[in-house]
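Design review, sub-item: ligand-bound model
Attendees: FS, YL, KQ
YL presented the inputs for the protoporphyrin IX containing FE complex:
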Amino acid sequence: YVWPGPYDLLEDEYTVSTVLGDFIEPCSAPVLPGIRLAAAEWLRTAYHDMATHNVSTGLGGLDASIGFETDRPQNIGSAMNDSLNFFVSLQSRTSSMSDIIALAAVLVVKSCGGPGIPYRPGRIDATEAGPATVPEPQQDLATHISMFASQGFNVTEMIGLVACGHTIGGVHQVDFPFTIENSITDSNPDGIVHFDDTFATFDNHIASQWISGQSVDPIAVGFNATTNSDARIFAADGNATMSGFASNPDHFQSQCGSLFERMVNTVPNSVHLADVLEPLPVKPHRLSLAVTDGSLVLAGQIRIFSTSAEAAAASPDDMPVTLRWTDRNGKTNATYAASLTADFPPTTSLWGSLYFFNAKIVLDAGLGISSFVIDYAFDPSSPLIHGDNGGGGFPLQDIAFFQSNQFCTNITTGDTSVTAMIRNDMGPIGDAYIEYTFGVSQPGTVVLRQVTVRTALTRVGNSSLPLYDEYTALLDLGGFPTITNIVTDLVAEIGQKTYTDVFTLSPGFC
Ligand code: HEM
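KQ shared the predicted structure:
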């Protein structure tokens, strides 16, 4: 896709993982010191959410209904709400909780050393609980076979899903006292017993230890035979699937990749997922126009991503990166260019090499800007790569735009306001308003519900730049703290034309 796109926020989190990355990179990162692996909790949450799917009715699936189901014994423990509470800050009009649950699973598997799973956004959050169809360890094999069949997985696939899921994390005594005993200590307050000897690595040890008779999986070889569901499941086809996994690590990885891809894409039939999201090679990052001290300024960052060996070896300080813009009349000029400087420290991506470059360009307000391209190379002696956003350049519109550094909550009054700049020489201004979407809490789940409100923009007066007038609007967030992303559309009708600008941001303080 090209920028801007409806899934920009998810693409950012997929590529840069600013919010989720810290908790799952490395895979062994605990939620709290000594307690629970975030990676394992998030992967388990994805399966439990998906497990409400029914292939006959087409209802349920990965739809964040799990938020309404956390009081059920089958979802025992804090993992589900712990996970959702992490994910809430990423929710927005364009990033549903269910898309975030799926994204988290994809990032976890990759971060733990597993396969790259193609990620498709577009999930829609449920408004109520689904059926109680998550398997529990004390149930018998016939029950599990029929539960997985309802979810769309045959016996071989059931064995695969369980083995692939149980290659990280383990079972906690605090939640499963009938399965685990004598494991709670000062350094292990939840009494976790791991599924295999590499509990924070996505590898085939869950299978090789099982086949070689050295399994430590507490729901395969635990003292309570009733809750040894992994043993019943692993042996359900005479150990054929587990033997295949044990003898061939690559086969394990590829099977887990395709099974988990199906797992995260198991959604209600009414939901149609978008195309696979992949990191954009060049993307603006919090780049926006502003009227600052009497000038029109383009400021923010440009992100450059690549999977090439040359990119991996690059030193960002030596990379030539030039932003070339086109003015409002569609004209280019050799002087419409600025070199960008590398941002420090470098950022990482699970998928390849990633570098950020800072832009702060004072534009001629009379000539303005309508788009730009980025010419760059990973090595100063290599030919330049032309980053033109699929051919058309990166579009910008300088007639009516948000002043993003003035989107903030007043510390004293608690009021959140937005400031916009609108050209005053383009004809009479008709309607000028913002439409903003934000999350509000709802009963029965920690998942937020998105609400959209429209508010007129009010002219404050002339800005520090005579060509632009300053407008403002007060947001009504219903007293909700501004922890979440707010997607705001600005619409201004000027001289028979409609100009729009959109940004997604959680407001700062002012
Ligand atoms: C018959 C099916 C299944 C049963 C009975 C089952 C049972 C369990 C149990 C009892 C735990 C311990 C939870 C805790 O103490 O916090 C657990 C953990 C886990 N399960 Fe499953 N599970 C099943 C299938 C799956 C599948 C298909 C996945 C795939 C993603 C999965 C992923 C996980 C993960 C990652 C953990 C570790 C959680 C942690 O360490 O916090 N499980 N499972």
